[in-house]
Design a protein that fits this description.
Blueprint (H helix, E strand, L loop, with lengths): L20 H14 L5 E2 L11 H9 L13 H13 L10 E4 L2 H11 L3 E6 L5 H8 L3 E5 L10 H9 L6 E6 L11 H13 L3 E5 L22 E6 L12 E4 L5 H13 L6 H12 L2 H27 L12 E2 L7 H6 L5 H12 L1 E2 L1 E2 L12 E4 L5 H8 L9 H8 L1 H17 L1
Parallel strand pairs: 1-10, 3-4, 3-5, 5-6, 6-7
Antiparallel strand pairs: 2-8, 7-8, 9-12, 11-12
Helix pairs in contact: 2-9, 3-9, 4-5, 4-8, 6-7, 10-13, 10-14, 14-15
The chain binds 4'-deoxy-4'-aminopyridoxal-5'-phosphate and glutamic acid.
4'-deoxy-4'-aminopyridoxal-5'-phosphate binds next to helix 4.
């Protein structure tokens, strides 16, 4: 040991944490590609589509915006987000209800920091919720959902958890359409969950970052049924193809403005305000228009077409998978191959993903990263490895006829087709 080296006194809440799985798989995939390997990038969940032209132009036009902006966000942008909420029939819809941040990920983190309550995560759930709770020292309760229920949180599960200690403060994160499953809730489901949330005064973060990517354009927010306790979390990353721009939004009901204010204080002492050019450009995205509506309709068609093709291919390989309602994820179960995999020493979803990446070049994330038990052989496939601009153009004239999905995938998402072929070969080889 060197005498003058600084001892590694990491905060206990951070000690032992690994880099976030989504970002780590992306870096690993890029490193393999740099070594000349063939990689199918189904790891990171990043929109394959370009930012709509008018929004990209707005960013170029605002590159001169250099001033620090108000902590809660540019007023015009808060107005645009409120208007957007109103158009999609989601309360809250006044500019003062909206908080802008550098990604909804950061806003979800700050909410957990300022509000003292246990975090309830319907599981499987997105990779970052639990590490964030750990960093700020919150207790996490995972509520395990089932494939037979389309991976949805059942109201009885929430009731059972809350009943044991009714007055305990709790935050529930409900994410729909879901990352990693693509499944969503019906209006009746949301109404039932809202009744339990109301009974136990739950702070509900409604993570609707994939809301506009419901494949039928039929997303509905739980804020319609539990307005007083719901914070809608969204942003530009998914529906606007702008993950790297880092812009997220929280929309609060009037009676939770004290949380908005507390979050803004933390923001003012940490990131100050969200990047100015990005906020100015985001105004045009949230104001919407015919071009953006068209972009959304076409994006959904592409995602639905490819989901339908992939679901059928995975099912033909004896992988159980629920056809998704939205987003760009599939969540197949490899349980059919459990014995064959065990004979090769593969017993966990982590080992499964490592073996598939090593042998085939397909990068995916293990269910374990989404809170699944280690030996559950579930895997998240982000079906985004295709040229989004080309697919958007092609879908304009591509007839939607039953059985046409394969032709579309072959022409406009050839890497996804190849990934299915190599996966099939790999599974055949282990039997
Ligand atoms: N929630 C879910 C379910 C996600 O998949 C992501 C990843 N983009 C986020 C929140 C965070 O998104 P962002 O920070 O880019 O707004
Ligand atoms: N949300 C994306 C995913 O689940 C990636 C971005 C991130 O994790 O911050 O893959």
């Amino acid at each position: 040991m060197e005498g003058n080296s600084i001892s590694k006194n990491l905060n206990l809440n951070v000690r032992g944490l690994q880099p976030s799985a989504t970002l780590a798989i992306n870096e690993q995939s890029n490193a393999l590609i740099a070594e000349g390997k063939q990689v199918y990038k189904l790891g990171l969940g990043q929109s394959p589509f370009p930012v709509p032209d008018r929004v990209a132009q707005a960013l170029a036009d605002n590159s001169h915006q250099k001033d620090y902006l108000p902590v809660k966000g540019l007023w015009e942008l808060r107005e645009a987000v409120a208007g957007h909420n109103l158009r999609y029939e989601e309360a809250p819809s006044r500019p003062q209800d909206v908080l802008i941040g550098p990604g909804s990920k950061e806003l979800i983190f700050i909410l957990q920091l300022v509000y003292y309550g246990d975090l309830i995560i319907p599981t499987p759930g997105w990779v970052s919720y639990s590490p964030q709770a750990r960093i700020v020292g919150r207790h996490v309760h995972r509520v395990r959902t089932k494939a037979i229920n389309q991976w949805k949180l059942m109201p009885e599960q929430l009731e059972l958890l809350c009943r044991a200690d009714p007055d305990h403060p709790r935050v529930v994160i409900l994410n729909y359409p879901s990352n990693p499953t693509g499944c969503t809730y019906s209006e009746a489901d949301l109404e039932h969950l809202a009744a339990v949330a109301r009974k136990y005064k739950i702070v509900l973060i409604s993570d609707e970052i994939y809301g506009l990517l419901h494949h039928e354009g039929k997303h509905k927010s739980i804020a319609n049924f539990y307005p007083e306790g719901t914070i809608i979390s969204s942003g530009l990353s998914k529906w606007c193809g702008a993950g790297g721009w880092r812009l997220g939004t929280f929309s609060f009901p009037e009676n939770l403005h004290w949380l908005l204010d507390a979050m803004a204080i933390v923001a003012s002492e940490t990131y100050t305000a969200t990047s100015a050019p990005i906020q100015y450009a985001a105004v045009s995205a949230f104001q919407g228009g015919e071009d953006i509506d068209h972009y959304l309709v076409q994006s959904r068609k592409v995602l639905k077409m490819l989901a339908s093709f992939l679901t059928r291919r995975l099912q033909a390989m004896h992988l159980h998978v629920i056809p998704p309602d939205g987003a760009f994820y599939l969540y197949p179960d490899f349980n059919f191959y459990r014995d064959a995999l065990a004979q090769r020493g593969i017993r966990t979803s982590v080992e499964l993903c490592q073996a598939i990446l090593r042998d085939t070049g397909i990068a995916m994330l293990p269910g374990f990263d989404f809170g699944q038990l280690p030996d559950e052989l579930l895997v998240r496939m982000a079906y985004v490895d295709f040229e989004g601009a080309d697919a958007l153009q092609a879908i304009e004239s591509f007839p939607w006829v039953e059985g046409n999905e394969e032709a579309f995938a072959k022409q406009h998402a050839p890497k996804l087709v190849s990934a299915m072929e190599v996966l099939q070969q790999w599974l055949n080889s282990i039997l």
